[in-house]
Design brief:
This is GNAT family N-acetyltransferase. By secondary structure, the protein is an alpha+beta fold. Helices cover 30% and strands 32% of the residues. It has a single domain (3-168), classed as Aminopeptidase, CATH 3.40.630.30. The protein has helices at 13-29, 42-51, 109-123, 138-146, and strands spanning 3-7, 54-59, 64-73, 83-84, 93-100, 128-133, 150-157, 160-168.
Length: 170
């Protein structure tokens, strides 16, 4: 499959929300508390798109959105109070709301999205990627390990402790 990574448009909001809605249900079925409190929601997606934070992974052959994430530069207040220490103190890209379409799971697309996020970060002249996840999000924890992220400590994100990671790009 040929894929593209591009900024989301307002016309992408409905398929993005469908992907997130199913990801929320998957997290619940796995017994996780992550994303079980009304976040994310369609308003968050609309705000991501409006602010230019939303990005989609697209199957170029069918023009189908197969994944979603939000990318922000130096914009995560929760990261200022880490219980631990970041690897760097400079500019960083943070990503949230990573989700792959249920119809495309198991095809390595989450890792492809992460590689696309790395390319985006390099193109901005930034060498630090930061992210956080629930302690029970085994899929994301495996990806962090596989892609060379370093555990930096815990952050308090929307009232819950989360594992915080950073990756330095060469």
């Amino acid at each position: 499959m040929q894929i593209a990574f591009r900024q989301a448009t307002s016309g992408d909001a409905a398929p993005i929300w469908e992907i997130l809605k199913k990801a929320i249900a998957r997290r619940k079925a796995e017994g996780s508390d992550q994303w079980q409190d009304g976040y994310p929601n369609p308003e968050v997606v609309a705000r991501d798109i409006e602010n230019g934070y939303g990005y989609v992974l697209v199957d170029k052959d069918t023009d189908t959105i197969v994944g979603y994430c939000a990318l922000l530069i130096n914009d995560e207040p929760a990261y200022e109070a880490i219980d631990g220490a970041w690897l760097t103190n400079g500019d960083f890209v943070v990503y949230h709301r990573v989700a792959i379409s249920e119809d495309y799971l198991g095809q390595g697309l989450a890792q492809q999205m992460m590689k696309s996020i790395e390319e985006y970060t390099r193109a901005k002249g930034i060498v630090s990627l930061r992210a956080d996840t629930n302690f029970d999000n085994q899929g994301m924890l495996r990806i962090f390990d596989k892609l060379g992220y370093v555990y930096c400590g815990e952050v308090d994100f929307r009232g819950a402790k989360r594992r915080a990671y950073e990756k330095l790009l060469q």
